[in-house]
Design a protein that fits this description.
By secondary structure, the protein is mostly helical. Among the domains are: about 25-135, no CATH class; about 220-420, no CATH class. Helices cover about 50% and strands about 0% of the residues. It contains 28 helices and 2 strands. It has helices at about 10-20, 25-30, 40-45, 60-85, 120-125, 145-150, 160-165, 190-195, 215-220, 235-250, 255-270, 280-300, 305-315, 325-340, 350-360, 375-400, 440-460, 475-495, 500-520, 530-555, 560-580, 580-585, 590-605, 610-640, 645-650, 710, 715, 730-735, and strands at about 170, 180-185. A two-stranded antiparallel ribbon has the order 1-2. A hairpin with an 8-residue loop joins strand 1 and strand 2 (about 180-185). Helix 14 (about 325-340) packs antiparallel against helix 15, helix 17 runs antiparallel to helix 18 (about 475-495) and helix 18 (about 475-495) runs antiparallel to helix 19. The longest helix has about 30 residues, at about 610-640. The radius of gyration is 32 Å and the shape is globular. The N and C termini lie far apart (about 95 Å). Its main location: nucleus. One of its GO terms (cellular component) is nucleus. GO terms for molecular function: DNA-binding transcription factor activity, RNA polymerase II-specific; sequence-specific DNA binding; zinc ion binding.
């Protein structure tokens, strides 16, 4: 009976196998025959020792050195995780019980340990049974098919996710030696998480700042092209001061303009000693710094704002910031300048709480008026400074998603009187027919800060079970939301309208639409908004972008950190609403949508000239918008095929609504915009396949978990994976790295 030779290797195969089989280290030393069995040869198995690969003249020690290097790299990466992410439990996950000693025959290996160095780590995952390893080149590619199968597989929707992701704890690492920083719900962290990527890959291209020593405050906390500068000419100083009072002080009335101008005149006339009056010196130079920053952003010229700030900081250590109102004014000027300059290395969050501590220490939260023996000027300045701190606290806490620091119930929330600065001097009486001035806008913004407080109290409360000692809980959250929208409508209708007030009036509109967007988008209180609510949210985000574009075209836009944050979160909110409510895309003219998105990217590009994080966010959002435009084109094509001609005409751009800013109402058109900006349609000729939720043409809302759907829906989710750039850490670092610098914070 002839033998079956089908399983026998040919001589060529036998010789190849013999060359690939490598004797283990122990058999090589003992010069005995090794059968090459896996995971251990018979000789090592009988001796009960670890079976490791031997050396080869051809392979040398490269495979074992590669494994050793990988082990060292894993140790290094684990040390970074322990340092930057202490909340990560490294004991969880796959077992790490491997023997790190690769040499010697006295090291005992576990039964499950396989030591194969002639194959790559990726190939070792596929080894089964006793098949010998196959020779592979030194450079290997990852199992792409397996990874794609994992990424594209369906995700199970957690029914609890809709109520947890809207207030997910976001810890963002901002520096090389800093603990992670908490970024909460109102910051838009969870929207960025959902819209960017489902796998957080480390972006090696992001610059890592290293900790430095802090020998002195002025030199380490301010970056300037030149050193401290002396006073400019008197004419130029007045021009810079006027810019400050027209743009900054009308939003944050920290200073009394006539008193400050008199103080500056005294400095130019050498009637005050600079060394003995550090408060006056600091205020004058800081106002010049803020005025220079405002003017340089508008005329697009380099003015020495940071140099004036350095001059001011030379007097800062001699100011009693915690024991006097002028000291608190200096601290507020420093806080406002930090929000306007990316070169400052002060932590705004800590500055905010320094201001709160000073307010409470000086009693500014209580209503102390002229009946207590103080002048009208002092009474009004105490009230104004309190409201500036109150407003900044709400603004910073909302942007960072953190609790407010100065609670409403601890304060006498009296508003300043409608008196301009000139009327507070002497016995001058305000005219009844006098048009509203800067203080009218300031007081109106203070009222909006109260509405912001209500939003933070109700919508962003993490613990929904209200304790007995707190305010009564909101019974009907939807009724509360509708009431908030009505209050915002009323506030918007009462914005003062005076000549030459285009900038501050537009700022008021942006603040209102921004708060409206926060009330409407998902929050811990309302994790699953209805389709109609998300449509209103889309309109609010859209108006924020259009208003920024309006200021930018008129050279009025001041590129602050608030500008970057508002623009980024407005674009992300628009993308979110488009995905959750496909009806928005069907009702929106494509050219108008592309025009609005390009306007937002243009604002971010201009802001990126001053804030590095804005450019980074703009690059990430650009890829996301391109994928969205392709998806919207697919929706429009299907809607065009199934809808009758009468309904088809409704998708065209209505000339009656072709303006940059629409009126503030619920019925504002979704298609009103100028279609003359950057055309994103170039290069998008292949539409993406629609998800099953929108194929029937009648579904206007994705009836699934609104958060997990971004990670589960491959039709819309796959194009959002834009590589290493599109990850959550990058965009959140771009938003908050300049705002919470990793340099030593101010104390």
């Amino acid at each position: 009976m002839p033998e079956d030779t089908s399983s026998r290797p040919t001589p060529r195969q036998a010789r190849r196998t013999a060359r690939l089989r490598l004797a283990c280290s122990r058999c090589q030393r003992r010069k005995i025959r090794c059968d090459g069995q896996l995971p251990a040869c018979n000789n090592c198995k009988k001796a009960g020792v670890a079976c490791t690969d031997g050396e080869s003249v051809r392979l040398r020690d490269l495979p074992r050195a590669q494994i050793s290097n990988l082990i060292e790299r894993v140790k290094w990466l684990e040390s970074i995780v322990r340092e930057r992410c202490p909340d990560v439990d490294l004991s969880q996950g796959p077992s790490g019980d491997f023997d790190m000693e690769l040499d010697g025959d006295e090291t005992f290996a576990r039964d499950s340990t396989i030591r194969v160095s002639s194959a790559s780590p990726e190939d070792s995952l596929n080894l089964t049974g006793s098949h010998p390893p196959q020779a592979q080149p030194l450079q290997h590619s990852e199992p792409v098919q397996a990874i794609q199968a994992i990424r594209s597989g369906p995700r199970l929707v957690d029914p609890i996710a809709s109520s947890t992701l809207s207030h997910e704890i976001g810890m963002v690492s901002l520096g090389s030696s800093q603990d992670p920083k908490y970024i909460g719900p109102s910051s838009g962290y969870f929207l960025a998480r959902l819209m960017l990527t489902s796998n957080r890959q480390d972006d090696q291209s992001w610059p890592i700042r290293t900790g430095v020593s802090n020998p002195s405050i002025p030199t380490a906390l301010v970056e300037a092209m030149h050193g401290p500068m002396s006073l400019p000419s008197r004419h130029h100083a007045k021009q810079l001061a006027d810019n400050y009072f027209d743009v900054i002080n009308c939003q944050f009335p920290v200073l009394h303009q006539p008193s400050f101008m008199a103080l500056m005149d005294q400095m130019y006339e050498n009637r005050i000693d600079v060394e003995s009056t550090p408060t006056a010196t600091f205020q004058v130079f800081m106002v010049l710094a803020l005025g220079s920053t405002v003017l340089s952003r508008r005329v697009r010229a380099r003015l020495p704002g940071e140099s004036y700030c350095l001059s001011a900081m030379q007097s800062f250590d001699r100011i009693s910031i915690d024991s006097s109102i002028p000291g608190l004014q200096c601290l507020l000027l420093l806080t406002v300048f930090t929000m306007h300059s990316s070169n400052m290395r002060l932590n705004v969050w800590y500055l905010n709480y320094q201001c709160i501590a000073a307010v409470l220490d000086l009693g500014l939260q209580r209503d102390i008026n002229t009946n207590a023996g103080i002048s009208l000027l002092e009474q009004e300045m105490r009230t104004r400074i309190f409201w500036v701190v109150f407003t900044l606290d709400r603004m910073i806490a909302t942007m960072m998603g953190r609790p407010i620091g100065l609670r409403d119930e601890a304060c006498d929330l009296r508003l300043p009187q409608h008196l301009e600065d000139v009327s507070l001097q002497g016995s001058l009486q305000p005219s009844l027919n006098q048009p509203p001035g800067h203080m009218a806008f300031s007081i109106h913004l203070f009222r909006l800060a109260k509405l912001n407080s209500e939003f933070k109290y109700v919508a962003n409360s993490i613990v929904r079970d209200t304790p007995r000692y707190a305010y009564p809980a909101v019974i009907d959250i939807n009724e509360w939301q509708q009431g908030m929208l009505e209050q915002l409508d009323e506030w918007y209708s009462q914005i003062p309208n005076t000549p030459d007030s285009d900038y501050i009036r537009t700022i008021c509109q942006i603040r209102c639409y921004g708060l409206r967007m926060l009330v409407l988008r998902p929050s811990p209180a309302i994790p699953n908004p209805s389709p109609e609510i998300l449509k209103k949210c889309f309109r609010a985000a859209l108006e924020v972008i259009r208003l920024f574009d309006h200021l930018y075209k008129k050279n009025l836009l001041i590129h602050t950190w608030n500008t970057c944050h508002s623009a980024v979160l407005s674009i992300i909110t628009m993308l979110y609403c488009l995905k959750m409510v496909p009806e928005i895309a069907k009702q929106t003219a494509l050219d108008a949508l592309m025009s609005d998105f390009s306007a937002g990217l243009g604002v971010l590009a201009a802001t990126g000239e001053h804030w590095s994080g804005a450019k980074r966010c703009r690059d990430i959002l650009d890829d996301m918008i391109r994928a969205t435009i392709r998806w919207v084109k697919d929706i429009s094509n299907q809607a065009f095929d199934v809808e009758p001609p009468a309904q088809r005409r409704s998708l065209r751009l209505d000339p009656a609504h072709s303006h940059t800013m629409s009126s503030y109402n619920e019925g504002a058109s979704l298609v009103g915009a100028e279609p003359h900006r950057l055309n994103f349609s170039e290069g998008f000729t292949q539409p993406l396949p629609l998800s099953s939720a929108t194929e029937n043409g009648s579904e206007s809302f994705l009836h699934q978990d609104p958060f997990e759907s971004f990670l589960a829906n491959t039709a819309f989710g796959d194009p959002m994976h834009t590589g290493d750039n599109a990850n959550l850490d990058s965009i959140m670092r771009g938003l908050f790295d300049d705002f919470i610098p990793t340099y030593p914070s101010f104390t």
